[in-house]
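Before a computer can learn anything about folding, someone has to put a protein's shape into writing. The three-dimensional part falls to structure tokens, numbers that each stand for a local backbone shape. The protein below has been through that process, and both of its lines are reproduced in full.
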Amino acid sequence: MDPRASLSTAPTTIAAVWRGGTTVALEPVPLPSPGPGELLVAVDLATVCGSDRHTVAGRRAAPCPSVLGHEAVGHVVAAGVGASAAVGDRVVWGVTVGCGRCDRCTGGRTAKCRRLRKVGHEPFDGAWQLSGSYAAHVLLPAGATVVPVPAALPDVLAAPAACATATVMAALEAAGPLAGARVLVCGAGMLGLTATAAAADRGAAAVLVTDVAPARLDLAGDFGATRTLRSDQTPPAVDVALEFSGATSAATTALGALDIGGRLVLAGAVTPVDTLPVDPEAIVRGWLTVTGVHNYEPRHLRQAVDYLTASREAWPWERLVAPAVPLDRVGALLTRPPQHEPRAAIAP
């Protein structure tokens, strides 16, 4: 029986619980009734973000045990009083849940809330048991960002909006206007390829993409890259550099490629990496800007859904997501080497 089929006949749901190392097991979980402002969402499709691979591999700290997963699309099956969506709505939801009251939230940095909670990053034995998307259901607390998804937008496009595409929207905002600009994109994964297409759509004069994998560079050409280079090659001068690989060597190359007044946006280093060497004189004399982006604000998720809807026919987005597999395969997806497609997918 589909554990999402009926709340009246299914008092439990199924979740893939990460219990440390490479251990991920399907476990029954009591199906909660949403409280005020909360939503219970049946997960239709989840995609596997690279940060979850880092967690399972031990490259970043995370609560354990937990239900991982923060890129997904689903439909609301129960809504608490005052919730932001109704039963039957097809939605995506943001990674971060801010308190809305601290100085960071009121100052426009809800993603860095002092009492931050995160989808797919909460302890399984805590108050928010069904926090992750590698499950048949996820419970979204009051204050979570929830965005409706148009019927014309397929699940394979909508799910990555919740992390990859929204993060790209935040990075592009930090980069400033791109019309007529020479843009360097470091890393041709999900974020890098999305940024490549978006930069082309925003009128960049040239979009140069670097990566260590030839197959990914080939794919970049289908997403608007005007030129590709291996990561060990020296790029020409650029106005904007977007670093998504997380490699310090790539960030160093990107910083060195900036022309006068250039901007470097760092978004890929979400695990500990080597220190980035910076020459203060070069920054001063070059009028350079270096900034970081981690997670995103609610507006960026809305922008992500709007952008994917508008560019639905412009780029071959479906090629970035592998065919979906059942929930019991999530452990293998989290531990296997990266595949040709930047995103694996799970259909609970």
Remarks:
- Residues 155-175 form the longest helix (21 residues).
- DSSP finds nine helices and 16 strands in the chain.
- The chain has two domains: 12-148+316-346, 164-292.
- The CA atoms of residues 239 and 262 lie 5 Å apart.
